[in-house]
Amino acid sequence: MARKLLWGSLVLGPIVIALHYLTDLGDVAEFVLAAIALVPLAWLIGEATEHAAHHTGPGIGGFLNATFGNAPELIIALIAVNEGLTEVVRGSLTGSVVGNLLLVLGFSLALGGPGEVDQRSSFTSIALVGLATALLLIPSEIGWATDDPDTHALAVISLPVACVLLAVYLAVTWQSLRRHRLMHVAQDPVEMAGWSLRRSLAVLGVATAVTALVAEILVSTIDTFAHEAGLSDFFVAAVIVAIVGNAAEHGGAIVIARRGNIKLAAEIALVSSAQVAVFLIPAVAILSWAIEPLSLAFRPVEIGVLASATALTAVLLLNGRSSRAKGVALIAAYVLAAIAFYVAGNRT
User: Fold this and answer.
1) What are the counts of helices (DSSP H) followed by strands (DSSP E) for the chain?
2) DSSP category for residue 289
3) How far apart are CA 313 and CA 126, in angstroms?
């Protein structure tokens, strides 16, 4: 039923694009429709990537999953960089890490109940997020001292930090990504064999192109939507945009957890958070140099929430066991994080 709904809702993407260029719908309505339209598009990109990975082998398949699995967030971030919305970029990236770490993992544990998690894989991902948080302190602390996070000097300082994070990602997570892909394929091997490589890549290309157009509409309407809703651009990016960009993968992890596969659901949530922290964040910083150099000078509230979420997750998973109570605790922590983002508002 859910798959049929996702297939049917793919028509929203072209509809949103047509409404944007052919009518005067209004920014608030466009933001809402674009946000909804990104959910099935993100799912289709993930679906096409999984089918392509079936033909390419574990190594390339893992790389495809990591790269295109984060395509919606990457596109949103780069479009926001082009629009000069640096706080939106950093907020959406922070929110994506925190959302996977607390919200997705929390719902997975709460709905899945008692079970075991893969301690080695879990703590590898948690350690990567912790390392990223520590390295991001370098440009962030300098930004706090200067009260200007967008200087060229800070962007220059951020570049080696991004390169180190990307190198760590390539060195440490390659095997984890391969295991992650194989676990997915094992869930439905018949379906994965259904698409040819050519069809998979064609769907991936079209879905990514439509996602780029819809993401451009979303980014261009953030300011108006935030103003009309009485929210800060930062909160909209860190909570709403971050959830929308990950919605398809979030839903997949939760469905898997409800089926009783806690280990795989936790793997998806934790690996996804690590991918954003040590792959997507540095990728955005490096690619931004082709548009406008982006510094990785995050705000104190962002670094604080990242560090707290990492520590809490590590403590709760220390014994390698899941429970509904742990899931509820993680969800409650996400609510507190969202409140912190709301109170913080835009940088002054």
Assistant:
1) 18, 2
2) G
3) 8
Rg (CA), the chain: 19
One-character DSSP codes across 180-239: HHHHHHHH-HHHHTTS-HHHHHHHHHHHHHHHHHHHHHHHHHHHHHHHHHT--HHHIIII
In the predicted structure, residue 336 carries a pLDDT above the cut 90: yes
Is the sign of the CA dihedral 117, 318, 272, 36 positive or negative? positive
SS3 state of residue 10: coil
114 is in which domain, residue-wise? 2-344
In angstroms, the CA 49 to CA 47 distance is: 5
Q: Based on the structure, what is the number of domains in the chain?
A: 1
CB 270 within 8 Å of CB 122 = yes
The predicted pLDDT at position 168 comes to: 92
Confidence bin at 177 (pLDDT 50/70/90): low
Contact between 234 and 66 under an 8 Å Cβ cutoff? The reply is no
Are 220 and 83 a contacting pair, CB within 8 Å? Answer: yes
Q: How large is the greatest C-alpha to C-alpha distance in the chain, in angstroms?
A: 56
| Residues 117, 140: Cα–Cα separation, whole Å | 33
CB-based contact 98:337 (threshold 8 Å): yes
The answer to whether the CB of 158 falls within 8 A of the CB of 286 is no
Contacts of 328 (CB under 8 A, 6+ apart): 106, 110
In this predicted structure, the answer to whether residue 237 has a pLDDT above a threshold of 70 is yes
List the structure tokens of 147. Answer: 């009260």
pTM value is: 0.85
Dist. CA 146–CA 149, nearest whole Å: 8
* CATH code, domain with 304: 1.20.1420.30
Q: What is the mean pLDDT of residues 2-9?
A: 78
| pLDDT for res 57 | 58
Q: What is the pLDDT of residue 18?
A: 94
Is the confidence at residue 161, as pLDDT, over 80?
Answer: yes
178 contacts 62 by C-beta, under 8 angstroms? yes
